[in-house]
Fold each of these.
Amino acid sequence: MSEIYSSIACNLDTHILQAALPLFEQEKVEAIEWSFDTLYRFDEVPAWFTDLVSEFSSHNRLVGHGVYFSLFSGKWSTGQQEWLDKLKKLSGEYNFDHITEHFGFMTGEDFHKGAPIGIPLTSRTLALGNDRLRRIQDACQCPVGLENLAFSYSIDEVRKHGTFLDQLVESVNGFIILDLHNLYCQVHNFNIDFADILRLYPLNKVREIHISGGSWEDTMTPPHMPVRRDTHDESVPEAVFEYLGKVIPQCPNLKFVVLEQMGTALATPASQAAFQSDFLRMDRIVKSLARKSLPIPAHLFAPLAGRANPVPLEDPDLHKQQMQLSHILETAANVSEAKAMLRSSDLHNSAWEVENWAPYMLETAMAIAQKWKNGFV
């Protein structure tokens, strides 16, 4: 068996499970990634799905991927505490190899309705992220990691993101999910070379890789370029497979490679066949590059001793700015109006550096936030 496990993102979704069933039957799927918090809204989970998760859990092949924690919210919420309480309970029921979350904070007041948005990369937000990661680690008592962003407002953000992630996970002896389609988005949206962006990340801390597809969103703002979005609703682009082949040899502590796709994009036999084809191609790449060396030491990303501070860290100024930004993104009629609202807000001349945001990315952020507010993704 390879030391790098070919995996799928497998949730309680009929279309995902239909697409993956032939792969399970052929015993091709070596691990599953479960977005456990997407079930927090369900009162009852079918026994067959619990059996599936339990089977991979019993073989140390289950990883958990959070969606809704909102890591960088400036104000601690009851929703975050409930999220941690449920994670602690699940961690007693299942053997998670590791737990990960998304970078950023969720817009909107509804805990389960919002767009994940980036934050200013400062010492204050670093401290906030450290506090939240430690609380996740306390709850799950296993290695903890973060995924790199697909969306940025400026090329400066892109260039700083890898170093900031490195500093964040270092605080909990954690690791990074390197999402290659997210890098594909950055390459296209900011005209940066893949090799150049890859050098910005600590590849020795990559324990998991994601591959997926996405979509293009037209923009009305000059230069009227299409923006690449990480929507998980199409097959994996050729370039992302090429990235995978280049990256695996540079990640000495890699353990899981995961194929992601939304169930809503897997409703037809053709789309399900394409998903299976993408998985088998991913698996061939993984197998061709799998290491023959000794296993990764178990202590490499092990949880730290001790506990988080009993009182969650908060940043009232950041919270106020986040609420203002959420309101602007969700209500502005166009980019010009959004810019005027930003100039009148606390984000003006701040660490957010809104003056340097690419207008076409601001337009895209508005489109994302307004779709989420109305119940779409």
Amino acid sequence: MRQNILYILIAAWLTGILAGCESFQEADKADDIAPLSVEINITSEVYETSGEGLILTLTEINKGTVIEKSVTGLTMSVDNVLPGIYNLSVFGATEDTEGNNIYLNGEQTNYPIIEDNKKIEMDMKGSLLGPVIFKELFYSGTANFYFRNQFYEIYNNSEETVYLDGVHFADLYPTNATTVRPVWREQDKGDYVYGARIWKFPGNGTDYPLAPGESCVISQFAANHKLPQYNPNSPIDGSSSEFEFNMDNPNYPDQPAPDMVHVFYDGKAGKGGMPQYLTPVFGGAFVLFKPLEGETYDPVNDRSLQALDQDDYFAQIYAKIPYSYIWDAVEAGPNESEINGKRVPGVLDAGMTYVGDIYNSLGVARKKRGERPDGTPLLQDTNNSTNDFERGVTPQFRRYGSKMPVWNHTLTGK
């Protein structure tokens, strides 16, 4: 008897659920749902801007419908929005009130818009659009298991001469793309990326000018990798590199290219016990940055700039790098499916680039969007590495006819 009653109750419950679903579906299909208006208020604690150049998108997550508008002011009304659950974003390149080129990004996810004249706050995170950007990266190495030919080419995409003296290069933690996020101490959280190892360009302020249209190549080992003692299958000869990451390894002796200055590893200025600087052949995350004028960046002696991942078994120390210092960031991963394992926040790089395999002698190169009158390229920079880079290219120094700086050691003989 009890069993029969239980069956009756379950049947009644299921009938009610199904009836509710039908009612919901009918309501969802109704043509007389009144559209709503919303008010978007754009704010930023760091940058003052008019918002010109930004794009606002509202994406209804169930139907996939998208509303896209150019930002016309820091307060915007959007009409004809159907009730639903939305992902909202404001993003793009713009200027702050001091004329600096910046990239802003703000998001609200799974946001219910079900009432009219709803006011929605969009708090924007920002970063500088630096004058010098990553142009080409070769990190995958060459068969069989040869990685000494890794290089990173940077490029002056602006219209002004930039001095590289004191500009920093860092690879970021986590080393590989992963959905397992670091667990930072409370004092380490904030608008930072976290450097595993940091280098900087030498110089006294004006020693290394990079003119518009000029490239600078930094190689792991600035040798001719095609030589028999290295790897004749290497796609590049690195001997014309401007700089190298010298790790004082007698098996890979110091080359004529000037050395980058080592700044930080595991809380110390020393290079550590491993005599090599290998970035992930699967694809790392990299930043170029420079401290703001008047600020000192010393993550070795300033403990407030050191961070600990509480889930890191080895308790390695990482360096906090403020968003506001960063000129460019590029995220690379094994393949397109690893986008969920991004290490770089969207305000710095909204995407990810890749070559699809390791030791395949292929790299990534930033897309060309135009030319200067002198024939040097203008490169695409939308802060989205998925869109900005050609993937799986044969690596090449100074692609598109970019120029070599006059102080390159192969030109000066020094």
Amino acid sequence: MNHLLLELANTRQTYRKMLNLYWLTLVLTIPLEFFIHRSHSAADGSELLGTLIIQALGLTAVTGSTEMLYRYRKFQSDDLMIIAGIIYASSIIYVNPTIGIVPAIYIFPILTSVLSFNKNRILLAFSLVIICFTGLFAVSPELRITMQPMHLVGILFLYVGVTIIAFNISNSGIELLNNLRSATEAKQELLVKTVIMDKLAKMDALTDLYNHKTFHEYLEKLIEQNERNHLSLQLAIMDIDNFKKINDTYGHWVGDVMLQRVANIIKETVTPNDFAVRYGGEEFAVIFTEKTMEQSLRIVEQIRQKLAVTLHPELDSQAVTLSIGLQDYAKGDGKEALFKGADASLYSAKRTGKNKTVVQTLRSDHKGA
């Protein structure tokens, strides 16, 4: 049986309900048997009461043992529930052999076996019912008198019919659960594909940073947050210095390697609250949130300095440098003003020597060594 069926068949909630049903049966059966016998017999009830007390103690022991295993040992067994049902039915039939319809109670353990969604357990329940009924019929003269040949045929037909119904229910349940599993797997596969497609739509394939389109979407949302909740916000635009020369001299594949390494340094340095982007070509951007301007400046300087001291075998052990423009967002400026400010700072860094960070709002340059 597949894991989904096992999970359903052994659900603790279902097991708990079955145990509750056994306890309820125990509570109701004993007084009901007493009143039925008293109403049909004028004899002294002391002997009957003794029999019912023994029956109650026996059923309490069976149900209590099952309860203890379930509650303290976390033990759940379909076979145990079936056997408990057989014991319940057998005791009721033994105490009430003169009531012709009582043997029909053996359908209860057969129906209990359906919850396992296992044909072997249904067959086990049916076999135990036949064995136990045969045993009771052999040891109880009252039951033999009550159960005439026609009654025996009818009871046997009932047991077989209920077993066939149990098989059909089990087959339908297994088919339904298999369909449910297939639908769940298909849904999970679709969800995975959707997540992958969503990531592909948002991420740059080469650097695994957010792409140009996603950058503008996030920037617009973050600016809205700034306007409503005064969320601090800075934008850094970074450009690899002399990147065209790298491509022309060493080839575009080396240029791709450099892009990946710059992206890795950016990802290693920024915080989880920041959004790192490959803006296009050799240009990157980082949106800083929940930071002061000084904190954002410190991070971009760490990125620039890490790259400046990294030597690349593909470039004959030379380093690559970054020029960076950093702009703080002022409430009411809007996305265009923020981007233009950061871009102007980047242009200033490029024009005045490269390998530096220019912060326009602070009117100061932070140059590399």
